Amino acid sequence: MLYLASKSPRRQQLLAQLGYRFGTLDLDLPEIRDAGEAPFDYVSRVAREKAGAGLLQVSAQPGATVIGADTEVVLDDEVFGKPRDAADAASMLRRLSGRSHEVISVVWVVSAGREQRAVSRSEVRFDTLDDALIEGYVASGEAFGKAGAYAVQGRAAAFVAQLQGSYTGVMGLPVYETAQALAAMGWPALASWSASDTAG
User: Fold this and answer.
1) DSSP assignment, residue 114?
2) What tens digit of pLDDT does each residue of 110-166 get?
3) In this prediction, what percent of the chain has a pLDDT beyond 90?
4) How many Cα atoms sit within 13 Å of 19 on the Cβ side?
5) Which residues constitute the domain of residue 29?
């Protein structure tokens, strides 16, 4: 059985897009960057901890495989996680305005005795955002629960002047890289598709 250690609707949608049938695991793990920890190392560690904690929940099931993922926005070596409140969200967006930032997504696929890591690093450049636009976006509620206080697949698509890398990685689960890692673990995406899935 395949499991996704995330309740994120976006990650569930992207994994389902590959044709997989999977269960979801609800985890509540602290996401705190260690002093001196590089942004990439932090993202990879959190993703691995999610996968490992998820595997512990289902370890009694033979063949259980768990996917753990983390995505963060990085600007000037600072990790922009999910905003605490409206003021924090607006502050993040003001700092991202008119600049390029990196979005790091790391996926770990783990089972008993095996693991694979998938990495996506994308560069996103925002247009210049005025205060009215930022305040309106924050008021919409879309900024909350999103790294960097924006959802590239939502209204914030209008902010993105340029994106180099993986669009789905910026969303939260890089589809190509995840499919490659799952295939290496014995879960090829194409093999899970049925004729009825592609008919019509």
Assistant:
1) E
2) 999 899 999 999 999 999 999 999 999 999 999 999 999 999 999 999 999 999 999
3) 88
4) 16
5) 2-198
- CATH label of the domain that carries residue 12: 3.90.950.10
DSSP letters along 161-186, please? Answer: EEEES-HHHHHTS-HHHHHHHHHHTT
For residue 78, give every residue at least 6 positions away whose Cβ sits within 8 Å of its Cβ, in sequence order, or none.
none
CA distance 21 to 15: 9
Provide the residue type at 59 as one letter.
S
Specify whether the CB–CB gap between 72 and 82 falls below 8 A.
no
Burial class (CB in 10 A: 0-12, 13-18, 19+), 28: exposed
Residue corresponding to tokens 């890692």: 181
Number of domains in the chain: 1
Active site residues: 70
